[in-house]
Structure formats: structure tokens, C-alpha cells
Amino acid sequence: MSTQRSLPTPATPDLLCTSDRGHHQATNDHSSQQGSSKVHKTDPRALVVVETSYTRLAQTVVTMLESVRYKHRLQVTSLVSEGKVLPSLTRADRGRFAVIVFERLETYLGLDSWNRQLLDKYCRDYEVGIVAFAQPDDMLYDAQVKDFPLFIHSKLSLTDYSVSSETQVARIARTDKTFSGRIPGSSWTVFVGNHSTYQAVARARLGHSVPNDNNKLSTEIFQVDSEVTPVLLDRGLYDGVRRIYFGSGFEFWLHRVLFFDALSFLSHGQLIQMLDRFILVDVDDIFVGRTGVRMTEEDVKAMVETQTQLQNYVEGFHFNLGFSGKFFHHGSEQENEGDDALIANRDQFWWFGHSYSHTKAHHFSSLSAIMDDMLHNQDFAHLHGISVNNSYAVAPHHAGVYPVHSELYKAWRQVWGVQVTSTEEYPHLRPARYRRGFIHDGIMVLPRQTCMLFTHTMFFDKFPGGRQRLDHSIYGGELFQTILYNRVSVFMTHMTNFGNDRLALYTFESVVKFISCWTNLKLKTRPPLELANYYFQLYPDETDPVWSNPCDDRRHLEIWSEKKSCNRLPDFLVIGPQKTGTTALYTFLAMHPSILSNRLSETTFEEVQFFNSNDNYVRGLDWYLDHFPAAVLNGSLLFEKSAAYFNSEPAPSRVSALLPRVKLICILLHPAQRAYSWYQHMRSHNDRTALSHSFFDVVNASSQAPKSLRELRRHCVNPGLYAHHLQRWLDYYDISQLYIVDGEMLRSNPVATMHQVQKFLGVQTVIDYSQLLRYNPRKGFYCQVLQQHSNTNSRTNSIKCLGSGKGRNYPPMDGKSTTLLKSFYRKPNIMLSELLAKLGLGEPDWLRQELTDS
């Protein structure tokens, strides 16, 4: 038991910060170092130049940028031919990058004269800085750096590292402490500058050196225990370009802090990290645990004392306890006393509800059953005087939060009034840097982080990798970096981490002291609702969720309801565009005995309109699945048709997230004909704008026209920009997943068209549509043949055509509109022809004729 063990105490700051060097310097405000107005002309984006994206340093740089959500472009020099290393640096008199990062200093120095002059001029004109890393295997060991009054000496071992108190670069990094002892890293480079432009960012002392390729020791150049410069600032006084050189990568954790400071300094604060860091430590399952590993009264006392200590480092800190009342007093006598101590100290902590029985939400039979369980927990709280934070709850095992179980969200709102929850699972558990928040059914979901403590990590000697691995995570490793990278961190721990060896107390006390020692970060804790509101103010673009396929993720499948099935997801989509014959194609496909369509929608008829409509999309995956048959025979294919998907901006990425292997069918009709058909469609629906304006007025509307007229024009002409929309879909899907139907062929020869569609879909049984379709001269297109049995057992045939809204007869397009649209679509049609040729696809007859006539 924990009272009988000798527990390690957290390291104090003085164990690692051994020599104070005067008063702590005030934090530098890089955002105020604007200089000229030129710095406003760059985008807050980094250009990262690497020789290959697979090196450890390149991957670390990208991981760090992604973790803090910095936009960046990766330029791989080994994939660029003819010496063209750099992408376009400017756009419309605006710099595209606020800072340039070179994985290798040698790459920057080795640029051909054209690229080097171009880059340096860009940096001077837009006041953009360069970060470069001196790699130990570069061809620069003990030599002068080409074109600069700068010498470098490589393959060194360093000790006693400190950030210079004179540097203006340090912002997150503190400048009044020294890391004593040998510095991690097998081969360091240091810099010696012979010009006033150079200024030390960090200093260290020389340790044991490694011979270079010439079997010479760099230490021969220095005195024993010499002070050297492993990170150097070039202030731009020599050639007008500011640079920061790193003499090693990120084996030494402090370089991660200095790298962010370098980005902030060189970008004039455009790539800046705010100093506030909000952390919330949830203690899940505070009464849940088997006998023998639960908390005792002494553990609770230690928890209260540690919380008080942490409040000296973390403003407003409280442990946030989640409870399942059913398991109260389910331990030994000593452990039950621990439960009583938690209740006695209830006002010391924050509290939130799990479910009473700690059961996964989707294992309950109904919404009312989930609510009854939550009400039991609510009664437990009232009985024991626990003041529950009703705005926050966490689901047992994370089940039901993501993938979403709608009944859980409904029960939370109705029983507890929950407004905030958290999960590690969105969009996936790993990699952690991609975890994001979203809002569903009015409940804000915060991304949750791990601290290497789980229900089974209770003792130092049983910790995976030993205490050394835990300490590495705390002192500069994974846990430290999690807080460094994330403005808001919600950590998950368990009751068992606070009993036994009290690993959670050790972990959080150690990491906050370490952060306070080495950084200027301001640690704070706020109640969950306040944290959530702050988070979505920071990241408003995360409010809308992106639904992925639970069956593509083992973790998601484990916490998804057994009653649900990915077999209900469609195998192919008819994506449009509108007014090209999609309804006819939908009808013809539905005739096939092995092809099943979605059920009809009450508002959009045969269309689901899930991926293009925000109102529908936020309803979630359950809502979408409910549009498809619950049982599907082997070999049958499911599909849906929503014609607005084709030109919808969010649809391609949303469809790809949920249906990465789906097949796509689109129909291309002459874009002017499609535009005119849409206009007539709106007139038939008594649209006031269409009724009060001619077609020419609509397609000729200027940017100064009334909004309703501009909107009608957009719906008429924009879907016909086929190449533009197709390219967006091809950004997410392989060409083998896309089939293009010629709209004219579908109308004039649907039998041949449907044979090719069946071939693309790979249906097991290919049917002969010549027996199912018949041309209707009154309608002007093919209709479905229906077989009927008469009283004499003979068969008679009738036909069923699309509704009265399809196949309308309306006057031909006027000459002015024809001429205008022919000119408008000429360039888009050329682009379409080039795209289809590039993809190895044939041109529709109407496109070939249009380009020939032009």
C-alpha cells in the first residue's frame, strides 16, 4: 500500500538549474519589433527547406510546426531538378513566408548564385529571417563559412549550457539559469564570428571532443573549458539579412524552446507563441478500482498537500475529480477510509460526473436508460454534498464522444446541462499533434492529452521503461513538450495514479517546477467551461466536426456501438452537378437488383445532401447512416445521389474523411445548357429573381448587381466550371475512383451509358437496360418500363417517367446569352479538355464540338 512505500520526491528546480546568474530578464516582445512596414507584407507561414522529408531533423521541425498550428510549406531539394530549389517567394506584392528554415546550413550556403541572390533579396525586402542548422556531417568542420566573417568548429562535446542574458531572441526561454553537466547530443557545432553583427543566443563550455574526418580535434583551437557559442544570431549588420544558426538539432530539449523563440524573433512576432498555458488535470474514476490499488486516507492527504503546492506554480490549480458513485466503498477497510477522506475534502477539489455504473453509453438499451444512470450519479452527489461542475462531463472509456453516440449528448444536456466534454479520439488518438476540438449538439469537445499515466501505471518499478522513461518525459520530453506546444491541455489521469506510488503527484509537481525553472510560460488552470470558450476563441475554425469512418480505426471501432455497422455506408456517390441528368441516372441505377439507394429525404426527396449542407452535416454520422438500409445482402452496392456535392467547397474533404475508398460518378453536360436549365428550374419554382429577370440579365449580372441576382448567376454559371471542381475532388481521390458520364449520351443512349456505369461499379450481375428503358417522345427522354400481369396471366408493359418537373419544354436560349456564355466558358472548357487528356479520359462529344467550333 502507498503508506508503506518509500516514495521518490519530485526534483526541485535547483537540481537542474544550478547557477543563478543575476536577475531574470524581462520577456522580449517580438511582436513590437516591427521595424519598417515591410514586415506586414508577409504571410504568417514558414518555408522549410530539407534535403529529404525522412530525416529525423526534418520530421521534428515539421512535427513542431504542426503541433503549434503554424502554416508551412516543405520544400524537398533532392526532388527538384536543374538546381531550382526555391518555390515562388512572393504573390501579388506580398511575401509568402515570414521565416525560412534550412534543415542544413550547407544547403543554404550551397545555393547557386541565382537562388542565393533571389532569397537574400527577398529576406532584405520583406525583412524575413533565416534559421539554419549546422549538421555534424556537413563538409564544414573547422573552417570559415563561405561568404561570411564566421568560423564554425564541429564534432564537439559541450557542458554547462545557458541562454545568453543579452540576447533579444529569448522569449519563452529563461536567461538566468544554467543547465549543468554534459549536454545531450553526440556532436555539436559552435560558431565564432569576426563581426559586430554576431551575437550569442546561447553559451556553453567545451567538453570532450570527437576527432573529425582529418583526425584532428577541434579542441586544439580552444583553451580547456573555453566558453563557446552553440546558437548564434546574425543581426543583419553585415549583409542586411538576419539569421539564427543552431549548432545541433533537437536532441537537447532546450533547442525546441529556442526554435520557437527564433521563429518569433525572425518573423517579427508573426509566428509567436503566447506565454499563457492552461492545463486541467482530470482524475477519472475516482472511486473505480480493484481492491488493493485504491487510494487510502494518507493518499488523499498527500493529494490535497500537492494541490496546495501546485497552486504556487499554476494559477487557480485544482484537481478535477470524476466519479461513478456505484463504486463508492468498494475497497478494503483502509481504502474505504480513503473514499471517506475524499468526501471529507470534497470542497478542496472540482468534481464532474461520469456515469453511475461506469458503463459505455452505447451499451445502454435506450436514451432513458442512459439518463436513469446519470440521475443515480446525481443523487449520489446530492447525498454526499458534492458540488458538481454541471457544465462538464467525461464519458467512461471515452465511448460515445467520438465516434459520436447521439443519445449520450442528449442525456448529458438533459440531466447535467453539460456544455463541455473532452476526448483523445478526435480525429484519431495518434499522432497526438493532430488532436483537435469540435462542437456537436451544442456541446464543446476539447482535445485531451495523455501524460503517460494510465490505470495500470501505479508503481515506479513497474512503469514501462522504468522511472528513467517517466523522468525523460517530464524533464524536456513528451509531457514537457505537450504543455509547450498546446495552449490548452486537458490531461487524463486515474485514481490509481494518485494512490500506490502516487505517480501523478510526482509527475505534475515535477513538470510544473521544471517549466517554471526553464521557461517564462505562465501556467494557469480554469474551470472547463471557461477553458472551452477560450479554446474555440483561439481556434474558431475547429467548431465544425469532420466525421471519419469508425471501422478504419481500431480504437474507434472498440468504442463504437455494436448495433452500428459501416456496411450501411455507401459504396459510390453520384455527386452531380445539378441539372445534368442526375435524377435520371439515380432512377436507372435504382432499377438494378444489386444496387440499393438511400431512403428518400423528407425535404430533399432522393437527395441526402449530407456533405454539402452544414445543417445536415453537423447532425452527425448516426443521422447519415439512418438514410441507408439496415440490412444489405452480400454483393449489393449502396449509393446516394446529391447533385450539389460536385461544386460544394467542403464536400470533397468531408467525403474523403468518411469514405476514402468510395467511387464517384459525375455527369458533364454542356455548361451553358446546364446554366439555362437551372434558370428555368428556378422559374418553375416561382423564384422571384428568375421570374423578374431574363436569362441574359442573370448571366450578365455584374458585381454591383443586387445580391439575389448575383446569387442566381452564381448558381447558374459556377457549377459549369468543371475543371476547377473536378480538380478539387482529385486532390482527395485517385482517378480510378472517378467516372465521368457524358450528359448528352445519358439522354440519347442510356442503355450504352448504363452498361459502362455497371462496368465501372463492378456489379456482380450486369443487366440489359434495353429491356428496362423506352423512349418517350412526349417527354423527350427514356423512361422506365413497368411489367404488369393482366387477369389472363399475360404481361402488358407500361412506362413510368420522371415527374412533371423533369423534361420541361422551354424556349431555346437567346442569341445574346449563347454568345456570352460561349465566351465565358471558352477558357474553362479548354482547361477541362487538358485535364481530361492528362487523366487519360476521353472528351464528351459536346466538349469536342464546342472547342472545334471555337
**The CATH superfamily title of the largest domain:** Glycoside hydrolase/deacetylase
- Alpha-beta classification: alpha/beta
CATH class placement of the largest domain: Alpha Beta
The N- to C-terminal Cα distance equals 87 Å
Strands side by side in the biggest sheet: 2-1-3-4-12-11-10-7-8
Counted by DSSP, the helix tally is 27
Q: What is the CATH topology of the largest domain?
A: TIM Barrel
Strands, count: 28
Shape: flat
Rg on CA atoms, Å: 33 Å
CATH structural architecture of the largest domain: Alpha-Beta Barrel
Main beta-sheet strand count, sense and barrel state = 9 strands, mixed
Q: Total domains, how many?
A: 3
Helix proportion: 25-40%
Low-pLDDT sequence parts: 34-39
Mean pLDDT: 90
Share of β-strand residues: 15-25%
Give a description of the structure.
It is a single chain. With 854 residues, the chain is α/β, with parallel strands linked by helices. The chain has three domains: 36-266, Rossmann fold (3-Layer(aba) Sandwich); 276-542, TIM Barrel (Alpha-Beta Barrel); 564-820, Rossmann fold, CATH 3.40.50. The protein is 31% helix and 18% strand. It contains 27 helices and 28 strands. Strands 2-1-3-4-12-11-10-7-8 form a nine-stranded mixed sheet. Strands 13, 14, 15, 16, 17, 18, 19 and 20 form an eight-stranded mixed sheet that branches. β27 (781-789) and β28 (795-800) form a beta hairpin. α5 (297-310) packs parallel to α11 (503-518), α7 (367-383) runs parallel beside α8 (406-416) and α26 (826-838) crosses α27 (845-853). It is flat, with a radius of gyration of 33 Å.
